[in-house]
Amino acid sequence: MYMCVGSFSYVDPGQKVRTVEYVADKQGFHPILSHVPPEHPADSESVAQAKNRHYQLYAKIAEEHANPHPELISAPLETQAVAEARAKHAQLFRVIAEQHARIAAEREALLREEEEKQHLQELGQ
């Protein structure tokens, strides 16, 4: 009597590893599906050491990047053209502020003068 025994594994649509054990004989093909995923083989000593080293390096890099070094961050350098433009802007701002203060003082003086004229007209009536 001729008989063939074997097994194979595959990943199903649910991303689970399935193993099929089978017997094939003159009566046909008889598969038995295992719903228990196969055990992963144990890591060898060198694989375990490599994994451990990898995790250590990963943790070190993650820690370094979790706390950025603000002292290493620098502002862009100011060119001569930018410095001159900034100084010109500051000077124009001062001139405009002085003009606004002068206009406000002149307006205040005009309002006082108008109030005095109105007061004198009220007294003269």
From TrEMBL:
Q: Which GO terms describe its cellular component?
A: chitin-based extracellular matrix
Tell me the keywords, alphabetical order. Coiled coil, Cuticle, Signal
Task: Report the coiled-coil segments.
Answer: 96-123
Q: Tell me a Gene Ontology molecular-function term this record carries.
A: structural constituent of chitin-based larval cuticle
- Give the top-rank taxon of the lineage listed in the UniProt record for this protein: Eukaryota
Its recorded name reads Uncharacterized protein
User: Which species is listed as the source?
Assistant: Spodoptera exigua
